[in-house]
Amino acid sequence: MTQVETLSRPAEWAARAEALRGEIAAGAARCDAEDLFAADAFALLKAAGLFKAHVPEDLGGGGASYASLCEVVRILASGCGSTGLAFAMHSHIVALAVWRRTHEGAPTEGLLKRVAAEDLVLVSSGGSDWLQSVGRAEKVDGGFRITARKAFSSGCPAGDLLNTSAVYDDPEAGPTVLHFAVSLKADGVRILDTWRTLGMRATGSHDVELSEVFVPDAAIAGRRPQGMWNPLFHAISLIAFPIIYSAYRGVAGGARAIALEAVRKRAPDEGLVQLVGEMETAFIGCETAVDAMVQLAASSWPGPETTGRVMALRQIAGQAAIRTAERAMEAVGGRAFYRELGLERAFRDVQGARFHPLQEKPQLRYAGRLALGLDLDG
After folding, report:
1. Which of 146, 197, 202, 294 is the most buried (most CB within 10 A)?
2. Burial readout 57-84 (b: 16 or more C-beta within 10 A, e: otherwise)
3. Is the pLDDT of residue 4 over 60?
């Protein structure tokens, strides 16, 4: 690959996202007001090849770099936070599969080829599962019967495969989390219309119910002890969270842009200047933290120390994104309270940054135990 290609291709993917941003933003208010999934936006992303953008070219995808993927998420979220975040949830599954194939020789080619050839949309239940997982796996001939209810399944109205897990009470190893994928159209899989929320209303993050869904032994992609840190979750932490928080960076950037356009029409006073300065400082903090996370994903190996750093940066980025939107609201004043401006939607959407793992108190606990050399699972 030549230097020109290396430099131009990221710009190409960003340009595709930028070309869609205005149209996606135009439909965001209606989806938010009516609790509608951003179906039209997802159709636009699929037509532009964005769902398979990060799949390697030799597997039929677009070959977009990891950093380019994060930039696409940021741009989309600056127009519609819900679209950006739901796309990020698909993208981090793809990115982890690419990383594991590249660095671990993991057999993820089959999934990646299907994403490229079939234009699959992947859905994750990781936000509601994390280390503990929820749901029951019962051993039967040839596989398992899964019964579970999975919350925060972003993008599921347009989804094809649910990447999820359940707990099997192994008679020898004890409670064991099984990882697998199931079709969202399989027998026993049902999307429940539950997503009525403060913000990120168009992500379609409904609950998905699995009622005695059969998963064959061959489809079990991984096993791990319940509730304990392990290499898989250190890899997830390294790869997933820079992508997810690129969405909140985009929401914060969108709020900042709305605020600056609004307040530049007013004669500045010292109070306004200070509020804008606070907004800018918070936004720079968000940008810096997300950039550092993206760099870690490119240069670091997953493990307890790397996870500690990623989670601290995730906390800094999220808090700075929220502060950016807060100061944007204050700078604009009473007009920001009206839905028409779009700033209050950004303010509500950015609150979602609080709720991804590791939330503030668990993150502080992890950081403290890591610094003191204590058992992270203790």
Report:
1. 202
2. eebbbbbbebbbbbbbbbbbbbbbbbbb
3. no
